[in-house]
Amino acid sequence: MSDNENLNQNNNQVQGDENKTEFDEERSRELIRTRILSKLQDIKSFPQFVLETMRKLNDPTSNVADVAKSLSRDEGLVLRVLKLANSAAYGAARNISNIQDAVSLLGYKAVSNIILAASVYSSMDKGLSGYALDRGELWRHSLTVAYCAQHLAKETGKVSSDDAYVGGLLHDIGKVVLNDYVRFGYGIIVKMVEESGMPFIEAELQVLGFDHSMVGEMLTEKWGLPESHKIAVAYHHKPNELPEDKKKYQPLLDVVSVANSVCLMLGIGLGADGLQNYIYPETLERLGITDFEGLMADMIDFTASLSHDAGFTSGF
Predict the structure, then answer these.
(1) Degrees, nearest 5: CA angle 296-194-196
(2) DSSP secondary structure string, 18-30?
(3) Where residue 282 falls among pLDDT bands split at 50, 70, 90?
(4) How many helices (H) and strands (E) does the chain have?
(5) Residue 52 to residue 44: CA distance in whole angstroms
(6) Each residue's pLDDT tens digit, 233-251
(7) Which candidate, 160, 177, 56, places its Cα nearest to that of 120?
(8) What is the tens place of the pLDDT at every residue in 105-126?
(9) Is 223:46 a contact under the CB 8 Å cutoff?
(10) Taking CA atoms, which of 112, 115, 234, 296 is between 20 and 30 Å from 184?
């Protein structure tokens, strides 16, 4: 056999090996995608009484008695609502012991937030080794982002503080589903981040076929949550890519994105994916924030005050 024939044979062999490698990688990705979608189907929806109560909270024709009756089916939720109603933040003139009075004092939005937080707490309080987060760290990060987003909403006046709270609380919910698969591909993902400097979430997408914001968006759809919640989850890492027909949610997305980035910069819930993260200057501009150093100082003080609240991370 001539040298040229040998060379061609070797080239064909190399090409064949490369094609086989690409085929195997795509097959592995497809298998992972199938398993992720299957796991999403296994995630339970909220209990029926929770869905019923939240529907009533969003129904302008419902009354306080209807909401209180539905809410009373869960003793734990009743206690949480009463606890908040009697907290210093609401400064009730008397002790509130009746759930109907508590709902009247707090308002529908606040009660809805309590129910939502209680419903996702058990899923978010677990350790997530794929993201290098110890038990409770995802919950602590999410709750801190929720309060920071709420604080920013109040300071800027650009968006409802209640919507900002929920967007911050749920923004990383997709990590609960994706954790096992990130752990499986962790070495490849981290190598891509370190060698190319790409954000962790982009490496997630390339290796797994999904990233945690996409999976989180699927969860919000499965749970039948409002579109505003879905937008905050789906775009919190790419606030400048919001479609034109969704621009009414831009202020909400911006406060959640900034709050998330600030919390990561302060080391709150800084897991494997937090190192390649930054604040988009456009979000600050849209929110009217011109003093970034002042913002950081303000958020340091604000998060410190949250940490000193003994019930902050253990209220559920």
Answers:
(1) 100
(2) HHHHHHHHHHHHH
(3) very high
(4) 16, 0
(5) 16
(6) 999 999 999 999 999 999 9
(7) 177
(8) 999 888 988 898 888 888 899 9
(9) yes
(10) 234
- How many other C-beta atoms are found inside a 10 Å radius of the C-beta of residue 122? 10
Q: Where does residue 313 fall: left (phi above 0), alpha (psi -120 to 50 degrees), or beta otherwise? A: alpha
Q: What's the pLDDT tens digit per position in 51-106?
A: 888 888 888 888 999 889 888 988 888 998 998 888 766 666 678 889 999 999 99
Rounded CA gap, 200 and 206, in Å? 10
Residue with token string 């909220």: 46
Report helix, strand or coil for 91. coil
Are the CB atoms for 116 and 167 separated by under 8 Å? no
C-alpha distances out from residue 254 to 161, 242, 296, Å? 13, 10, 16
Tokens matching residue 302: 């604000």
